[in-house]
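Structure tokens please, single chain.
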Amino acid sequence: MEQLKNRNTKSTLPILSIAIVLMLYCTGCQKEDIPVPLDASKNISTGQTSRTIPPLYTVISITHDGGYSVSAANYRVTVMSNGIAIFNGYRNVAKIGEVKFDLTEEKLLKIEELIKKYDFFSITDDLKYIPDLPYVTTTCALPQTNSVAEVADHSRSLIDYNKGYPEALIQLRKDVELLLNISSYVNVKQTGLATALPAQD
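Here you go.
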């Protein structure tokens, strides 16, 4: 009887060993979860990873070129799509050099509304370049999507000579500059140099 018991025990041990090995193997074969980066989203159907970070582009840039005038203000102000505004003063302005400042989301949206209000992309471009005269170049971009190609397709530059035409273009850039409150950077309190912008209240 003792021999039969020992024989049964010996025959059971290999079976238990195989079961334990199989359990360990199956556990190790379970799929490991791979963390997805916070700035990316996984497309399960295609397996492609797409980022949602929009390209940085210039919403509006206004460049005042003094030409051969000895007193005309020469500067550029640029508004980027991330809400950063940049003033660059070159000549006959109160601030020479670069100044960066942040815009509120409300101001950024207001600038975009002004571009639409004055229908910038429909303004007739029939002015010819006149050498030596002071002129202003206004560049705007209002892409409909976050595509780089869309930004290029919806960007345009126009020139005016501050002579009242095109009226919508001049009013647009004046409204934007007042909204940015850059009069303290532009206006020069010096005899013989007229102020370029009205003071902001």
